[in-house]
Amino acid sequence: MKQNEQIKISLRKTNMIRPLIYVSIFIALGLDLIFNFSFSNTTISHTIIITLGLFSLIIFVGIAIILLKHLLDNKSGLIISKRGIVDNSSLLSIGFISWSDISDIKISNINNQKSVIFIFNNPQDYIKSVSNKLKRKVMEMNYKDTGYPISITTRSLKTSYRNLQELLTTQMNNYKS
Question: What are phi and psi of 6, to 5 degrees?
C-alpha cells in the first residue's frame, strides 16, 4: 500500500431497507394510537394510549432519521489505511482504530453471526478512551459478553467476513513489519 493509498469497502445499503420498513410500521402504529384509537371499547386510560403513541413516535422517528442518514451517506463502510481502520459499518461504529492498538484479527461466531473481531493490546484502556458514552457502553457490554470490545459484521459491507479478515490481517502485518 502506498503512503496515501486507502482501501475502501462500500456499504451494502440494501440491508438498511428492511429495518426502515419496520421502523415505518412502528411510526404508523404510533400515529394510529395518537389519532385513531377508539376509547369506547377499552378500559385503558386515554393518557396512557397517547403517551405510548408519543413514545413510539419519538423513538422510531429518531431511529428512522439515523437509518435515513446512514442510507443517504456516501461514506465508505470501512476505510483501511497505513494508520489503521475507520469503521463506519454500523450505527454504533467506533470510527478510527489504530493498527498499533490491535494485536490480532480473528473470525468469531457472535450471536449466530460470523464477525471479524479485534484483539486489542489493552482492551480496557481502549474502551476507556472512547468519549461517546453510548459507544463506550456498547463496547463494555461486548467485552463482557464476548471478550472482544469491537467486532465488525459484514452484513452491512460489500464483502465476506473471510475476505475482510484476510485483508485486514494482511494490511496489519504490512504496517507492523
Answer: -130, 150
Chain centroid to CA 97: how far? 15
Q: Which residues of the chain have pLDDT under 50?
A: 1, 3
Q: Which residue from 168, 174, 177, 169 is spatially nearest to 80, judged by alpha carbons?
A: 168
Q: Which three cell numbers stand for residue 160?
A: 465476506
Cα–Cα distance between 41 and 21 in angstroms, integer? 30
Cβ atoms < 10 Å from Cβ of 177: 5
Output the pTM of the full model: 0.74
